[in-house]
Input
Amino acid sequence: MDNSRQQLKKTVKKHIPKDWLCELRIAYRILMEAVNDILRTGWPTNLIIITTMVAILTIFGVLFRFTLSMSTFAGELGNVLEISVYLKPNTSVSTVQERIRTVNHVKSIKLIPKAESWNSLRKDLGLHDMENPLPDTLRVRVDKPENTMEVCNTIKPIAGVEDIGYARELAKKIQILTNVVNTTMVVVVLVSAALTITIINNTIRLVIQARKDEIEIMRLMGVSNWYIKTPLVMQGAFYGFVSSIFAVLPLNCIQGLLLQMHKFFLIPAPVYAQNIVIIALLLIGTSFGACGSLWAIKKHLQV
Output
C-alpha cells in the first residue's frame, strides 16, 4: 500500500508544472525561518555556542597547522638520512649500483670513491705515508624514513657489499615523531567532532522543543519533512561557519611564529599550509554543525 502511494505521488509530481518563482519563494521562506530560529534562540545563547565552538576549532586549527610544519620537518630530516653501503675490495661499483637501483624505496645513490674519502680524512687528521684502508662507499637515500630498515635488509645480501651503516636512532626518532603527529591529529579531529556535534545537538533540541506546537501544526497541514528539517540544519551549519571564521583569526599569529621557526632551521615552510588549514576549518566547522543538527532532528523530531 505504501509503495503504491509513493509511486502515485511520484507520478503526479512529474506532471505538475514547475513554478520557479514559487520555488524561489519557498527557498526564501526556509532561509528566513532559519534566521528566525537563530534569533529565537537568543543572542546570549548564540554567543555562548559560537564562543565554545571557536575555542574548539581554534585548538584544532592550531594543532593542524603545527602538524603540517612538523610533517615538513620530519620529511626534511628523512631526506638527509642516508644509508652508507661499504663495498668489498675489487668489487664492480657499477654492478652494485644497478642492483641497488632495483630495490624498492631507493630514491638516489651517490658514489664516494675511497681515494676521495681518504684524502679528506688525511687532511682532517694530518695523516701521512699510510696506505688507504677505506672502501668505496655508496650513499643511498630512501624515499621515506620508515622504509630505511627494509632497504637495509634488502641491500645487505647483495654480492660485493661488505657492511652497511646508518643513523638507526635518528631513523627511529623520525618514525616516532611522524606517528605521534599523525595520531595526535586524528585524536584532535575526533574530539572536535564529538564536542561540536554535542553542542549543536543540544541547541537544536531546545529549538525543536520551543517550536513543538508549530512543527506539529505544519505536519498536520501536510508540510513536507525537508521544509521542516532544512531551517534547523541551516542553523547548525551557520553556527559552524561563523565559528570557523573567528577561529581563523588566531592562525595569523601561529603562522608568523612557524615561519620564523622554519627560517631559523633553514627548512622551507609547507606550500599553501595556511590556506589548507583555513579551508579545512570552514569545511569541518560547517559540516560538523550540520551533522549536529541532523543528529538532533533524528533524535527529537519524528518527521
In short: The chain has two domains: 26-76+174-300, 82-166. The chain has a mean pLDDT of 78. Residues 168-210 form the longest helix (43 residues). The radius of gyration is 31 Å.
